[in-house]
Write a structure and sequence with these properties.
GO terms for molecular function: ATP binding; microtubule binding; microtubule motor activity. The chain is of the alpha+beta class. The protein has a single domain, classed as Kinesin, CATH 3.40.850.10. It has four helices and seven strands. The strands form three sheets. It has a three-stranded antiparallel sheet, with no helix packed on it. The chain has a two-stranded parallel sheet with strand order 1-5. Strands 6-7 form a two-stranded antiparallel ribbon. Strand 6 and strand 7 form a beta hairpin. The longest helix is centred in the middle third of the chain and has 17 residues. The radius of gyration is 18 Å and the shape is elongated. The two termini are about 25 Å apart. The structure holds adenosine-5'-triphosphate. Adenosine-5'-triphosphate binds next to helix 3. Adenosine-5'-triphosphate (ATP) binds next to helix 3.
């Protein structure tokens, strides 16, 4: 469940081209004009209309980013680049809020090899993904809530 009352929230994210794609002069065929809709065009049929899809979130992380001094990638000015914090705010926080309220929650990433699942879910040291950010927030909340009458137990099942 999320703030919007939806039981399932679906997001898509487009990553930057990797070196192999750049070497092969890959063509960008995805467009995300408003944060929710995604279009895909067929490069072999330039006269055909693109196909449009709507999601709860369409994250543009392909370009339009700048690197901060600490290595964090964030939106350059006038860019709609979705950074790790934005993804966490929209997806991770909702899951955490619901878990905190006693609901069982799951979050999973789906996509082909190299599409960016680990980057969004785990991230890197400088660009932490949802799991480390959720853990930070979880332990902050525990720290600020615990008292002599309240005890917390966190279990990780591998
Ligand atoms: N939003 C992003 N911004 C910058 N780089 C990204 C982003 N998403 C993915 N990448 C980079 O793209 C590469 C592939 O991403 P990642 O390893 O997360 O894919 P994956 O879907 O988990 O792959 P696999 O299924 O093979 O494990 C990595 O080098 C990662 O750093």
């Amino acid at each position: 469940m999320s703030d919007s009352g939806e039981t399932v929230v679906v997001a898509v994210r487009v990553r930057p081209f990797n070196d192999r794609e750049k070497e092969r002069n890959a063509q960008l065929i995805v467009n995300m004009p408003d944060g929710k809709s995604t279009s895909i065009s067929d490069p072999n049929a330039p006269n055909e209309e693109p196909k449009w899809f709507t999601f709860d979130y369409s994250y543009w992380s392909h370009d339009g980013y700048k690197e901060e001094k600490n290595g964090y990638l964030t939106a350059a000015s006038h860019s709609n680049y979705a950074d790790q914090k934005q993804v966490f705010e929209n997806l991770g926080k909702g899951v955490l809020d619901n878990a905190w309220n006693g609901y069982n929650c799951s979050l999973f990433a789906y996509g082909q090899t190299g599409s960016g699942k680990s980057y969004s879910i785990v991230g890197t040291k400088k660009n932490k993904g949802i799991i480390p950010l959720v853990c930070e927030e979880l332990f902050n909340r525990i720290e600020s809530t615990k008292s002599k009458d309240v005890e917390f137990q966190v279990i990780i099942i591998l």
